[in-house]
Amino acid sequence: MYSPRMRRPNANGASESCRPALVGYLVVAKQSPYCPDMRMTQSTPPTLAPGWAGEPGTARYRSRVASKFGGDFFRPLGSDLTASSIGAGTYLGECDEADDARYTKTIRHALRRGINVIDSAINYRCQRSERAVGAALRESIAAGDVSRDEIIICTKGGYLPLDDTPPASRAEYKAYVHGEFLEPGIIAPGELVADGHCIAPAYLDHQIDRSRENLGVQTIDLYYLHNPEQQLDAVAPAEFQYRMRRAFEALERRVADGDIRAYGCATWQGFRLDPGARGYLSLADLVMIAQSVAGDDHHFSAVQLPINLGMPEAMRAPTQCLPGSRWVSLLEAAAELGVSVIASATLLQSKLASGLPQPIRDAFPTLTTDAARAIAFVRSLPGVTTALVGMKSTEHVDQNLLAGA
In the 8-state DSSP scheme, what is residue 247? Predict the structure, then answer.
């Protein structure tokens, strides 16, 4: 199968296949090499769960489960949310029904056990991860396990997503990108980077609508631009600033429309690089762009980046410049700028789940597994709101939550 080359290891970042795009109450399916015989048909619009995560709901969730955990397990996210300090990630896995079922079952279990932060991206597993999250949320609400206002749903847009399964060849992929995104004008010439990344307003609008449908929610609680530093492979810094401003304008508009509640940037290396390196991101500059778009009432509220025992730059490297020419770490800069930090790759795709050195084990004497120790390390860092951990089994949920006891 084919997927275009991206900076982040094995990121999908490609296209959509023959899943039709919802337009009002009609499903429009254009001719494509994957489904040439589809025609416009009547369709029932998807049922989207109303509402969003809020202060009363997330506080209610905390009060219901807090006795299972330590006193610092739940933490503020933004100005009004209460977030579990361990969140469920949905990055890894196969594009198949077996992993769909595993994710749905696991997320349902996580919601019952004390995790109220669920993270995904439209390109994860060919959109299947978002759909598994949507199924889990829908089933959990129907069963009375949770309410919509208790759960913080986060996703990302930027990479062109596959749909269900990837195309078999580069030629099929390029034909699909042209037919589904370029020809309809969703992406204009010059807006596509690295064969699979775009942050143009029309594209983000399209992706937000698709993510809302996949997740089954009227409102996404936190929407990230996914690896925006990818753009710097192809455009100059001034053009990048312009593109980010246009993206933030689009996201602020979607906040005003009630389709998302807040936004941010989820990066792989942008905040970990040395200043001056290609792909480097300045958090202060991003906050300034948001302020220039919407003033002090802007909704740029969170960043996500890898933080773990093997990737400690967010806490150690003085990569961020604040007023007064003060160079500080990303965690320090975020705290001063009022931006929440979500840690990704907490276990570094399971590489830190075993074999930790003895000093790390000694630092967490009450924990019995290296996975729990690695999670506890990230949770212990000042400024980290939530440590995301990929989970595809109920056993992993229970084991990972030991780090929050």
Answer: H
